[in-house]
Amino acid sequence: MVTPRIFRLVLLLLIDRFRPHGYGLMKLLNEISDGLIRVGPGTIYPTLFYLKTRGLIREIKEDRRKVYELTEKGKQELEKYRESLEHLLENLLKISRGDWPQGASRKDE
Fold this sequence. Notes:
CATH topology: Arc Repressor Mutant, subunit A
Distance between the termini: 24 Å
Helix content: 55-70%
Shape: globular
Structural class: mainly alpha
CATH superfamily: Winged helix-like DNA-binding domain superfamily/Winged helix DNA-binding domain
Number of helices: 4
Radius of gyration: 16 Å
CATH architecture: Orthogonal Bundle
Number of strands: 2
Strand order of the largest sheet: 1-2
């Protein structure tokens, strides 16, 4: 299970890169995770509301849809944690390939 904090950071990253609408975020999460991460409206919209009330994103009306973009505060938040996100992803890849990070313990040892 992905923690709410990591999920919010992933959404900030996607919003920064793609400027999507809510349904577009659901599709992006499904696509980039090969179906591993599937979220519905009951997860995505409350999280977007949370990010919006914290001043990290804003809604912009485009045609009939609301698209989301980062505020300056949202950009700062993403930058603050970008290195940690990259480190997490790199370590997950290492673990997946059997190349365990130095000092990490393996459950089967």
